[in-house]
Write a structure and sequence with these properties.
The complex is a heterodimer. By secondary structure, chain A is α+β, with helices and mostly antiparallel strands. Chain A folds into two domains: 4-165, Uridine Diphospho-n-acetylenolpyruvylglucosamine Reductase, domain 3 (2-Layer Sandwich); 170-277, 2-Layer Sandwich (Enolase-like, domain 1), CATH 3.30.390.50. Helices cover 27% and strands 25% of the residues of chain A. Chain A has nine helices and 14 strands. Chain A has helices at residues 10-19, 71-76, 84-91, 96-101, 104-110, 118-123, 141-144, 220-226, 257-277; strands at 4-5, 23-25, 44-46, 56-58, 62-66, 127-131, 136-140, 145-147, 150-151, 158-165, 170-178, 189-198, 201-210, 217-218. In chain A, the strands form four sheets. A five-stranded antiparallel beta sheet of chain A has the order 4-5-10-6-7. Chain A has a four-stranded antiparallel beta sheet with strand order 11-12-13-14. In chain A, strand 12 and strand 13 form a beta hairpin. Chain B folds into four domains: 1-171, Ubiquitin-like (UB roll), CATH 3.10.20.30; 202-295 and 355-405 and 410-442, 2-Layer Sandwich (Aldehyde Oxidoreductase, domain 4); 445-615 and 765-915, Aldehyde oxidase/xanthine dehydrogenase, molybdopterin binding domain (Aldehyde Oxidoreductase, domain 4, 2-Layer Sandwich); 622-756, Aldehyde oxidase/xanthine dehydrogenase, molybdopterin binding domain (Aldehyde Oxidoreductase, domain 4), CATH 3.30.365. In chain B, 26% of the residues lie in helices and 24% in strands. Chain B has 22 helices and 33 strands. In chain B, the strands form eight sheets. A seven-stranded mixed beta sheet of chain B has the order 8-10-6-18-15-16-17, with helices on both faces. In chain B, strands 2-1-5-3-4 form a five-stranded mixed beta sheet, sandwiched between helices. In chain B, helix 11 (378-389) crosses helix 12 (416-426), helix 15 (523-541) runs parallel beside helix 21 (882-894) and helix 16 packs antiparallel against helix 17 (572-594). Classes of the chains: A alpha+beta, B alpha+beta. Chains A and B meet through helix 4 and helix 9 of A and strand 4, helix 4, helix 8, helix 13 and helix 22 of B.
Chain lengths: 279, 918
């Protein structure tokens, strides 16, 4: 007989995962669409009743976003400008219905190349906290997602939280997504950027580009080039095509490979310009 | 022999629905949408995709909107769910529902529950939202009918929506009357194809080809059924009495179930019939079927290539039809032209994307077969089912359910023959509901086209010649391909007077789903070509694009490309004149904006169209009846299906004024082939014109009979009070108690009847003749903003001027135009179907509420004497000028002429790159 487990504590959840293969269900916004017209016969671990997984908190060094925090939860949370980019992404994930149900951890675990949550979290230098029956560890998000629909998560593990380090300097962030329509659109390409600024100069920069490779990627060459630059409307001029050289976008029905690189660069420039102008 | 299939442990979930405590026992993983509909009987919540792409299933959980198709029922334990049924209070509509009703915010109504719930969520947090807040809140619900504008207007007007008084007797035509059948669409009571399935119905699941082209063999189906508890029978080709259907009487080329050879991916091969759980649990790999893949013919070029493999063995050259219109000597006339423009255009498959997937059920009653189905054409369904079943027409009864969007896609048979054969053989009710991917894979599409066109004019800008060849991909079976190949050449030179025309339309078979009817029958594709030529010629002569069109506009007295002299009602000049001030203002605004805009550039474009109303050079009659019982019950027996466009309302308005009684006294019986007369199909923009005229005649007929009973004069004012009819004329008041009359027609004591068949004549070998009795005309302008860095296009404004003859109901007319504009915008900018790749509503994109421009409709009324009160049709014309106007605007903004639609960002960006000097 198949099971449907709905524990109320994390320890029960990881104990169940240790015993059997279970499909983890939270918001359902990726689970059900991949089973249209198919019977639902898997053993399921529904983690939506674990209240502790849905909290947003902070300590001296980190912000901690619980795994089942929904995009709407994030939007209504009082958070510093550091999170503006992530909030912009939250508004672009499906319609409000999806934002009300879909979870941030689900977006990461689903590991779509076009996951809107990944670039902004990469630009926040996020780590993910992973629990099993014995241990709780954490790993950089950039290492967690291995490829298209592939992550490090073992069948006995649960992603329990996203950890975001508090920046050294005043930080601001942005996110822009390009699609062929306004709402409910799979990204053609998207850019997220976080800048730490002190005395009008860029002290830290993290820029990530999504939907232009199997996994969204940071642009380290560009980030290095931005350090020390004056934070103004010219900031976008520092972005060069070479900075995107490591990306490997595909041709598909949404756009060509060439377009993704070309528009990606233009999008990076525009995001940096807008971030620079905020000063 | 089969692995036992795991059953999920049943659990009990207790929750509150619309304020009432409910209990569900069963699989905790079951979708909430299914629980609401199947277990709790709340079918107001609709399922459009089961994937969170359309939002039709939106409900509130603890006051917040979510997709009930993505919610495990276990997750609502202890929580409160609100569905559309919970929005009204004991039969009293909420202010939001009233506003939707007054504004015409619901057309087919299938998205309406989702829209209302999303709006209720917004209004509970923000009582006075602005338009942008409304869009953000409703962005997750797709509508395919309205163009969204009336939905936004309704929500902005919730606070002040007041019920407008209904028109009095004689004042219905021309009034902004809310839908006579509108309330049920707002309360969740309306029953669509999947909503009224009997509890004891067996379920039918279609097994479809995963290959574009393959031979196949099936094994022992009886043994397969016997080995699968719950499977009653597996149907295959030999179970279908006459295994071929098709639109044209002489082309029944599409099998109900493929017979050893599949010609498109998604073609029906087998039908599993049994309990719902049993048919849904069968894995594809378990089926006793073996395919041998064959190379497919994909695309027009491959189909037309010399020596191409044949899709249908008896169709040489893969050619379905080669249609021509020839007038004068186009080739010679180009020599005398001062300016000539020439180009080739390309369009792809476009999906109808009605939010209601195909659905219906059948039952056998003795020697009759009754089919309840979402359809645009009950009478064609009846006749086609009689052929498939080898039964007499009288043995088939089609009962149309409410139709959750059609746009041409529900003119072809879908579930009808499958549930019909199954119910007949098993003598049990059998139901079938397509999944979204199945609907998209199996249903017809807009014909992809490749159009070459050459147009020339004299130095004063008068068109002299148009020469065009349009090739269409008609897919694996004929469907409506012949209609497209004949309609396009007639319209190919546009709504202009052109002395020399040579126009050809060819349809080629390929290994794709059949291309069929889709709002405009190929004319939208043709309009993209002829309007681009008009822009280029105007530019070459240095003339204003609107002025150039005005010079050439067809007028009453002009002869068309088929030599038909238009006697009346050719209002294109009036449409252009109405656009002129908007055109001038938009040109000035673009010039100002582009002085200092960087990567963002604005442009304005214009598109014109004409469209023949009704079938092409074929009889297409409609008969309407109005009955009056001895108890004074007034009934409109209306065989025309209202698919959301509002024919129930418009026909009632016409009937009411023709009879002389107020429209609220009418009851409506719609589409049931046992109870109504054949009104023809709801397509070709024909119901207002053809059935409207028939119902006007029926109303007059009944009025004459009443006046005769009453011995009252022709201008008498009628009243119906209970069973007593009263008439007031110069002689005073007359009255007659209908109770004295015997019931002669069923329950009716009196009946009026009217029939109208628009006068046309067959076309000759050169396509010359009178293919349509009347034509609609329109001109639209589009203002767009292009972001040149990204190749993205935002349509900011559309002004649409349409000559509709007479707007019987301006709300409905505007709704048709706005919805047409939405589909035209989709055609221009985002919609492109790829077989096997875009079988869902997140890879196949249709416009959302955030993609629509501000739309202004200007209604021109150049009366058509044949039509009811001068009315023509508007269903298809709304979308035809939109894409040309948008393409013209993109050129105006950027200097780039796009010859392929949709203008996806990467296509426009690639075209822009060589023009960049920055």
């Amino acid at each position: 007989m198949a099971a449907y487990l709905r524990p109320t504590s994390q320890s029960e959840a990881v104990a169940a995962l240790a015993q059997r293969n279970l499909t983890i269900l939270a918001g359902g916004t990726d689970f059900y669409p991949s089973r249209v017209g198919q019977p639902l016969t898997e053993d399921i671990l529904d983690i939506s009743a674990i209240a502790a997984l849905r909290e947003i908190g902070e300590d001296a060094g980190h912000w901690r976003i619980g795994a089942t925090t929904t995009w709407s939860d994030l939007l209504s949370a009082r958070l510093p400008p550091l999170f503006d980019g992530l909030k912009l992404a939250a508004r672009e994930i499906g319609g409000v219905q999806i934002q009300n149900a879909g979870t941030i951890a689900g977006n990461l675990c689903n590991a779509s190349p076009a996951a809107d949550g990944v670039p902004p979290l990469l630009a926040l230098d996020a780590r993910v906290e992973i629990a099993d029956a014995k241990n709780i560890t954490n790993v950089a998000l950039a290492e967690f997602i291995l490829g298209n629909r592939k992550t490090l998560l073992r069948p006995d593990q649960l992603l329990t939280a996203i950890l975001i380090p508090k920046p050294e300097h005043a930080a601001r962030s942005r996110f822009v997504k390009l699609g062929a329509r306004k709402y409910l659109v799979v990204s053609i390409v998207m850019v997220a950027a976080t800048l730490e600024v002190d005395a009008g100069r860029v002290r830290g920069a993290r820029v990530a580009l999504g939907a232009a490779s199997a996994v969204a990627q940071r642009l380290p060459l560009l980030e290095t080039a931005l350090i020390g630059q004056a934070c103004d409307a010219t900031l976008g001029d520092h972005a060069k095509a070479d900075h995107l050289a490591a990306l490997a976008p595909i041709d598909d029905v949404r756009a060509s490979r060439e377009y993704r690189l070309d528009a990606g660069l233009a999008l990076v420039r525009r995001v940096l310009k807008e971030l620079g102008e905020v000063a | 022999m089969n692995a036992p299939r795991a059953q999920v442990d049943a659990q009990t979930v207790r929750f509150v629905v619309n304020g009432v405590a409910r209990e569900y026992s069963g699989s905790p993983a079951k979708r909430l949408a299914d629980v609401l509909r199947d277990d709790l009987g709340l079918t107001g919540t609709k399922i459009g995709c089961n994937a969170g792409d359309c939002g039709a299933c939106t409900v509130l959980i603890d006051g917040r909107q979510v997709c009930s198709c993505l919610t495990a029922v276990a997750q609502v334990g202890g929580r409160s769910v609100t569905t559309v049924e919970g929005l009204s209070d004991a039969g009293t509509l909420s202010g939001l529902q009233r506003a939707f009703h007054q504004h015409g915010a619901a057309q087919c109504g299938i998205c309406t529950p989702g829209m209302l719930i999303a709006a209720a969520d917004l209004l509970s947090r923000n009582a006075r939202p602005n338009a942008e807040e409304v869009k953000d809140a409703l962005g997750g619900v797709l509508c395919r009918c309205t163009g969204y504008q009336k939905i936004i207007e309704a929500i902005l007007d919730v606070a002040c929506a007041e019920q407008a008084p209904l028109p009095t007797a004689g004042a219905a035509v021309g009034a902004r009357v809310p839908k006579v059948d509108g309330i049920a669409k707002l309360t969740g009571e309306e029953r669509y194809g999947a909503d009224g399935i009997p509890a004891d119905a067996l379920w039918l699941r279609v097994v479809r080809s995963p290959h574009h082209h393959a031979a196949f063999e099936v094994g022992d189906l009886a043994a397969f059924a016997a080995a699968h508890p719950g499977i009653e029978r597996v149907l295959c080709a030999r179970d279908v009495p006459s295994n071929g259907f098709g639109i044209y009487p002489h082309i029944k080329d599409q099998p109900v179930l493929a017979d050893g050879l599949v010609r498109f991916r998604g073609e029906a091969v087998l039908a599993l019939v049994g309990t719902r759980d049993a048919v849904e649990s069968v894995g594809v790999a378990e089926l006793p079927i073996r395919y041998r893949k064959l190379p497919p013919v994909m695309g027009i070029a491959a189909a037309a290539a010399p020596g191409a493999p044949l899709v249908q063995a008896d169709k040489p050259g893969n050619l379905l039809l080669d249609g021509w219109v020839r007038k004068g000597d186009a080739a010679a006339a180009f020599a005398g032209c001062a300016a000539v423009a020439e180009a080739a255009f390309e369009t792809g498959f476009v999906e109808h994307a009605y939010i209601e997937p195909e659905a219906g059920w059948a039952r056998r009653i003795g020697d009759r077969l009754e089919i309840h189905v979402t359809t645009q054409t009950p009478y064609m369904d009846r006749d086609e089912m009689a052929l498939v079943m080898k039964l007499a027409r009288e043995q088939i009864r089609i009962v149309p359910t409410a139709c959750g969007g059609g746009f041409g896609g529900k003119l072809d048979l879908s579930v009808q023959p499958l549930v019909g054969v199954a119910a007949w053989l098993l003598d049990q009710p059998v139901a079938c509901v397509y999944t979204r991917p199945e609907s998209m894979a199996a249903s017809t599409k807009r014909h992809p086209s490749r159009i070459r066109i050459k147009s020339g004019c004299d130095a004063k800008g008068r068109l002299l010649a148009v020469e065009t060849e349009a090739d269409f991909d008609t897919g694996a079976y004929a469907s409506w391909g012949p209609t497209v190949a004949t309609r396009v050449p007639i319209h190919a030179s546009g709504p202009y007077f052109v002395p020399h025309v040579s126009a050809r339309g060819r349809a080629f078979f390929t290994h794709c789903h059949p291309s069929g009817a889709f709002r405009g029958f190929g004319v939208p594709q043709g309009a993209i070509a002829h309007e681009a030529m008009m822009d280029e010629l105007a530019d070459k002569l240095g003339m204003d694009r609107l002025a150039f069109r005005r010079i050439n506009a067809l007028k009453a007295g002009d002869a068309t490309a088929t030599g038909q002299v238009l006697a009346h009602s050719a209002g294109l000049v009036q449409c252009l004149d109405a656009l002129q001030p908007h055109w001038d203002a938009a040109l000035a605004a673009c010039a100002a904006f582009n002085k200092s805009s960087g990567a963002r550039r604005r442009g304005v474009g214009i598109g014109c169209m004409w469209y023949g109303i009704g079938n092409t050079a074929l009889s297409n009659p409609s008969t309407m009846r109005i009955g009056l019982s001895s108890k004074g019950v007034l009934t409109l027996y209306n065989g025309a299906v209202d698919i959301g466009q509002g024919s129930n309302t418009i026909l009632t308005q016409i009937a009411a004024d023709a009879l002389g009684l107020p429209l609220q006294q009418f009851n409506i019986v719609m589409g049931d082939t046992d109870l109504t007369a054949d009104a023809g199909k709801t397509s070709a923009s024909r119901q207002t014109f053809v059935s409207g005229k028939a119902v006007e005649l029926a109303g007059r007929d009944l009025r004459a009979k009443l006046l005769s009973l009453l011995e009252a004069s022709a201008d008498a004012a009628l009243r119906l009070e209970g069973s007593v009819v009263k008439a007031t004329d110069a002689q005073g008041e007359h009255q007659y108690d209908l109770a004295w009359l015997p019931s002669r027609h069923g329950t009716d004591a009196l009946r009026g009847e009217g029939t109208f068949d628009p006068p046309t004549s067959p076309q000759d070998a050169n396509g010359q003749g009178v293919p349509y009795a009347t034509y609609a005309f329109a001109a639209q302008l589009a203002l767009v903003e292009v972001d040149c860095d990204f190749g993205t296009v935002k349509v900011l404004d559309i002004v649409a001027a349409h000559d509709v003859g007479k707007a019987i109901n301006p709300i409905q007319v505007e709704g048709q135009i706005q919805g047409g504009i939405m589909q035209g915008l989709g055609l221009a900018l985002m919609e492109e179907y790829h077989p096997g790749r875009t079988e869902n509503l997140h890879d196949y994109l249709i416009p959302t509420i955030g993609d629509m421009p501000s739309m202004k409709c200007i209604l021109i009324e150049d009366p058509e004497p044949l039509g009811p009160s001068g009315a023509k049709g508007v269903g298809e014309p709304g979308l035809i000028p939109t894409a040309p106007a948008i393409l013209g605007a993109i050129h105006h903004a950027t200097g780039v002429r796009m010859r392929q639609v949709p203008v996806l960002p990467h296509r426009l960006r690639a075209a822009l790159k060589p023009t960049e000097t920055r």
